[in-house]
Every structure is written in C-alpha cells, then in structure tokens.
Design a protein that fits this description.
Keywords: ATP-binding, Ligase, Magnesium, Manganese, Metal-binding, Nucleotide-binding, Protein biosynthesis
Cofactor: Mg(2+); Mn(2+)
Number of strands: 20
Number of helices: 13
Protein name: Ribosomal protein S6 modification protein
Pfam family, one: RimK
Largest sheet: 5 strands, antiparallel
Radius of gyration: 26 Å
Strand content: 25-35%
Helix content: 25-40%
Length: 415
C-alpha cells in the first residue's frame, strides 16, 4: 500500500509514529505537507499537484488536519475523495467534528448523550440561555479550539454574561453549556479506529484547573470502558462520518455525555498511558479498507432526475404498522429502504421480512413523486404552504406603481 500522511508537522510525535508504523509493516509512506498541494479542476478529471509537480498515485491518505487550516485541508481531502483515493477520515467528517456547534447539532438528533447547550447572538438572549441550561456555573466555549483553549468556566450569571458579551464584541461565536458538576474535573478519551474502541483513558484535572486535557497538566490512567460508554463512542464517531477519532466524554449521572469528537487525535498521551500500538492499529485499519474509498451517497443517488433520498417516519396508527417491509408496498413502488432507525438502533439494509413498528424511521431511495405520497399528511402540509396566485401585472410594474404612489403621497403631506 502506498500511503500519504497529510501533515504540516512532520516532526510531531503523532506523525512520526504513524510513519514508523507504516514502515514497519512494509508499506510505502510519505508525509505530505497539506499546504503544498494545488487543486486542479477540469471536466471529468479532478487532479492534484504537490510542490508544483503532478502528484503520483496513492492508495490511501491519512489526514492530520490542524484547526488553523481546516478549510484548505478539507478541500485537499475532498479532492482525493473525488479521485477515488481512500481517506482514513472523510472531508465531511472532519468539517463536522471541527465545529463544536455543528457536531452537537448533528448528535442532538440521535439518541446520544450531550451536555445541554445553547447558542445565541443577541446579548438580550444570554441570560435566558444560561437559565435554560440550568443556571450558573456554566461552561463557555469558542466554536473552534483544541487542547482546552477557548474553554472557560463562569461561576456566576453576571460573569457569564460579561464573558459572552466580551467574546462576541471580538466577533467570536461562543456556546453556553451546562457544567456537569458530577464529572469533578474528569473526562474520558476513547480512541476509536473503525468499529472498535481500541484504547481508553481517564484524564483528571489537577489543582484548581477544571480542564482535564493532558496539555493542561491533567493526569491520565488507562481504563476499560463498559458497554454503554463504548457504544456511545462508536455511534458518535459513525454519526459524525469518521473512522479514526478521539471521543471525549464526561461521566454524567445519566451516563456518558459527549463533549467533543476529534478527527486528528494526538497519539502521544494515550500511547504512553496505555502502552498500546495505536499508530499500528490505524495503519492496519487503512490497509484493510483501502478498497472502499469514500462515496458521497446523496450525491450519487440523487444524480438521476426525479430520484432522491428522504426519511419516512411511521407514526402511531399508520397503515404500515405490523406489515413487513416486503408487504408494505414500498418495494412494489420501486422504493428501496437503505436503513431502518428504531429507537437508538441502526439497522442497515434491513431484510424484507422485518416487521415495521410505530416510531420507526426509514431512510429511503426512490422516485420523488412516490416518496412524496409516503410523507405523513400533516408534515406534507407544513412543508408545502399554499401557493398564491401571481398578480396580473408584472411584479416589477406593481412595485414601481406603488413606489410612485408613495412618492406622490409624501409630496402631498409635505405641501
């Protein structure tokens, strides 16, 4: 396998370990500076140049995209995807996880534990927002930040309002988040590779520091995750569209609370804590999946005119309840069920003999006209407001006439 590691820091611990692991396994590996690429676009021929030379063929890439170059880095990864090169993490997954608000918005739709969070811009909304997350103390976070940078603890409502207003005055977007007091300055980092949590450690803040990041002096200990925490880390990674990730979780009263999902997790802290060859596990995963490059499913499925993808919910009292997918009439109308969501379970490519229940959600592909009739009537009415009749005169003429009338009326008042 010929592997390219996209990194602007070839001497960093993580980059060196990944290169060593690939060398030890007999793969060809090269560290490529992400900022030295040129993206060429031409009809039917996406291409890349590196240091002003045409890039040779690679079987796979491993992105290590820093927060400061997210936009350009994801563009480079996306270009590799268009060239059918396998990427350990997808460009969309990196973009999803890098923005804290975006990642929580995605997770909030699923049965994944997250601290209660709010996002506001108007300073008059700050106090009600703090009250909605449970009152002070609260955590205030910048939307982009790593290693605990841009994470603040406000002990009182007044200090929280002051911090938020100050940051917003500097054109910074911030999240207001419930302070999970029971975590007591501790969190869990679960390292996910593919469909396994290969390592986990607990980080404990020291002294008066509430942030447990290793870069903030946090102490670490290797741990074995129970099934609930392991499944939460795996599902969050998959929902985000990542294959390699560091999932940070708080230990809340109601179970795991996802804080952040890191698409370029550092290896130094967790390898030294657990004494596991995590870099090797990442390289082995890439080698075993190199034949399955990223495919934008929606892009591919909706390229045909009149076809699309939608999610169909089955409410209480629906005719399909109790019938199987095969007998529901979906397949007869050329509607393919790609995935079935039932509570917290995700069932890909469900069998035709699976019985449907109230509350099920079906991800379907088919003709848009057929799919439209499957959307519940109430939802359809809400999404399709009544179309008003167009005026007889052209709209531009009407606006012009109204403007003239207003000018005349203003002149009369002035006289």
């Amino acid at each position: 396998m010929k592997l390219g590691i996209l990194s602007c820091s070839p001497r960093a611990y993580s980059t060196r370990r990944l290169r060593e692991a690939a060398d030890q396994r007999g793969h060809q590996v090269k560290v490529l500076d992400t900022l030295k690429f040129a993206i060429d676009l031409e009809r039917g021929a996406p291409d890349l140049y590196f240091r002003r030379k045409h890039l040779s063929d690679y079987d796979a890439i491993l992105p290590r995209i820093g927060a400061s170059i997210t936009y350009y880095g994801t563009a480079v990864v996306r270009q590799f995807e268009q060239m059918n090169v396998f990427s350990a993490n997808s460009s969309s997954g990196i973009a999803n996880s890098r923005d804290k608000l975006r990642s929580l918005q995605i997770l909030s739709r699923h049965q994944i534990g997250i601290p209660r969070t709010t996002f506001v811009r108007d300073k008059r909304d700050v106090f009600p927002a703090i009250e909605r997350v449970g009152g002070a103390p609260v955590i205030i976070k910048l939307l982009e930040g790593t290693q605990g940078i841009g994470v603040l603890l406000a002990e009182t409502i007044q200090s929280a309002e002051t911090i938020v207003e100050l940051l917003q005055s500097q054109n910074q977007n911030v999240l207001i988040q419930k302070f999970v007091a029971e975590s007591k300055g501790r969190d869990i980092r679960a390292f996910v590779v593919g469909d396994q949590v290969i390592a986990a450690m607990r980080r404990v803040a020291q002294g008066h520091e509430f942030r447990s990041n290793v870069h903030r002096g946090g102490m670490t200990e290797a741990i074995e995750l129970d099934e609930e925490y392991r499944n939460t880390a795996l599902r969050a990674t998959q929902i985000m569209g990542l294959r390699v990730a560091g999932v940070d979780m708080l230990e809340g009263r109601d179970g795991p609370q996802i804080m952040e999902i890191n698409s370029s997790p550092g290896l130094e802290g967790i390898e030294r804590c657990t004494q596991l060859d995590i870099a090797g596990a990442i390289v082995d995963h890439i080698a075993s999946h190199v034949d399955f490059p990223e495919i934008d499913l929606r892009q591919r499925l909706t390229v045909s005119r009149g076809y699309g993808v939608t999610e169909i919910s089955i409410p209480e009292g629906a005719d399909m309840i109790g019938s199987t997918i095969a007998s529901s009439g979906l397949m007869d109308n050329h509607v393919n069920v790609l995935t079935l969501y039932r509570d917290a379970a995700v069932i890909p490519n469900p069998r035709g003999d699976r019985e449907l229940q109230a509350g099920d959600r079906l991800l379907c592909f088919g003709k848009l006209e057929t799919l439209r009739h499957l959307v519940p009537k109430k939802t359809r009415r809400r999404r399709c407001p009544t179309v008003k009749e167009l005026p007889e005169l052209p709209v531009a003429n009407q606006v012009h006439d109204h403007h003239d009338d207003a000018v005349v009326e203003t002149m009369r008042e002035a006289i």
